[in-house]
Amino acid sequence: QGRARPHAARMHGHIVVSEGLPLCIREGTCPDFGRMNFDDRGRPKLAEFPLHTVLSDAVNAALGELRVAERLGGNGISLKGQQLGYTARGAEPNSVDRELARELATALVHQLVKEELSGVVPFIDGESIGHVALEHLVGEDRNTINP
């Protein structure tokens, strides 16, 4: 059984990092990223780098400066990093996982920017990419996901 979420109303958000991280890493203009290893094509090896730690530390610092937790009535803020391939299959990501992440990230950006949508989750249905409102996915008990 999974751990139940606290019952207090909370705001949630997601940050999706996929292939194509900005060129600033390659050029060394992102000092927070430290030393990054690259593959034979010059792409950063994200699997070898604790990117979620760097990003969550930066976001936590920014939220602390803005005193967000205090403004939300003292509710703590937690950030978690997860490799989608491991979550989906219990194994390190492979080329299919990377392609899926790239397609979903592209769909999400398209929906959010072009269609001005908010609070949606992209999905793949056959060869099509669609979206569903987040509120339709969350069960009445707020701890389950509707089919």
Describe the protein's architecture and organization.
With 147 residues, the protein is mainly alpha-helical. The chain has 2 domains: 81 residues, no CATH class; 55 residues, no CATH class. 37% of the residues lie in helices and 8% in strands. The chain is built from 6 helices and 2 strands. A hairpin with a 2-residue loop joins strand 1 and strand 2. It is globular and about 50 Å long. The two termini are 18 Å apart.
Features:
147 residues, mainly alpha, two-stranded antiparallel ribbon, 8% strand
- Mean pLDDT, to the nearest integer, reads 67
Structural class: mainly alpha
User: Largest beta sheet: what is the strand line-up?
Assistant: 1-2
Biggest sheet architecture: 2 strands, antiparallel
Can you count the helices? Answer: 6
Q: Strand fraction band?
A: 5-15%
Principal-axes shape call? globular
Q: What share of the residues lie within helices?
A: 25-40%
Distance between the terminal alpha carbons, to the nearest Å? Answer: 18 Å
Instruction: Please give the radius of gyration in angstroms.
Output: 18 Å
Low-confidence stretches: 1-7
Q: How many domains make up the coordinates?
A: 2
| SSE arrangement, N to C | HHHHHEEH
Instruction: Give a count of the beta strands, DSSP E runs of length 2 or more.
Output: 2
Question: Can you summarize this structure?
Answer:
It contains six helices and two strands. The chain has 147 residues and is mainly α.
